[in-house]
Amino acid sequence: SVLLLRACLALLASPIYLLSFLGMWEPFCRKVFFPFILDKICVVHDKKSKKHKQELFSNLPDFRGPSGELKLLEIGTGSGSNFQFYPPGCKVTCTDINPNFQQSLSRNMKKNQHLHYEQFLVAAGEDLRQVPSGSMDAVVCTLVLCSVHSVSSTLREVLRVLRPGGAFYFLEHVAAEHSSWKYFWQQVCYPTWKLVFAGCCLTRELWKNLEEAKFSELKIQHISVALPWMPIEPHIVGYGVK
After folding, report:
1. Which positions ≥6 away from 183 have C-beta within 8 Å?
2. Which of 10, 43, 92, 160 ranks highest by number of CB atoms within 10 Å?
3. Alpha carbon distance 19, 16 (integer Å)
4. CA dihedral 194, 196, 197, 202 (to 10 degrees)
5. Which residues does 41 contact at the CB level (< 8 Å), separation at least 6?
6. Model confidence over 210-235: pLDDT tens digits?
7. CATH number at residue 128
8. How far is CA 162 from each of CA 9, 121, 135, rounded to the nearest angstrom?
9. Per-residue pLDDT tens for 10-68?
């Protein structure tokens, strides 16, 4: 039944599959579709997850460095929807593998002038070589680990750039309980969803990757963030300390 429903969904999305076969979908998705649709999704997601993010980032000031400054690196900054939750004076370095979010990113920077924006780096989470080792007090990653090529490599880079005692903050959608209908529909949607949404994987059990990473302290909470007609309700939220 999963394969049959996958085929039906692929039929409905056949124009996108055709564009992908012709090599036209990926550049269009990166430059136009994904920045546009992610901006819209983030507006809805931020409303649903606002309390969780406020609680998550409430202790960010506790991780200020010895100088009293808070140097923060955000992986997959996108449109900058997290800026509103960062404390005043925070020095933010933005990274994203996709440089096509300029319009919405500039808009959110202007809205959040309580922050100091250090630089924007075009970089994948698995390769942050432009960021010196041990240079960050905090690293933030929200709705990004679902689409990186290697979660374990990304977490190794996170630990590398963090100073000892620094913290990694995350809020990610994850696989549902395997015996649930939510997981069934995640399996059905998986191939088409991954194609349409720039490599986003619906069934990653990211809490296992985090537990396997070498954090000295790890706090993970499983929550639900319901978005209309979208198979990404199960989430994890928390932080790990190097």
Report:
1. 175, 176, 177, 203
2. 92
3. 5
4. -30
5. 227, 230
6. 999 989 999 999 999 988 889 999 99
7. 3.40.50.150
8. 42, 17, 6
9. 999 999 999 999 999 999 999 999 999 988 888 899 999 999 999 999 999 999 998 89
Pairing of strands 71-75, 136-142: parallel
For tokens 């191939």, the residue is: 191
Judge whether 241 and 167 are in contact, CB under 8 Å. Answer: yes
End-to-end CA distance of the chain: 44
| 111: Cβ contacts below 8 Å, ≥ 6 apart | 83, 84
Query: Which pair of structure tokens corresponds to residue 12?
Result: 């409905």
CA–CA distance, 136 with 145 (Å, rounded to integer): 19
User: Where on the phi/psi map is residue 80: left (φ > 0), alpha (ψ -120 to 50), or beta?
Assistant: left
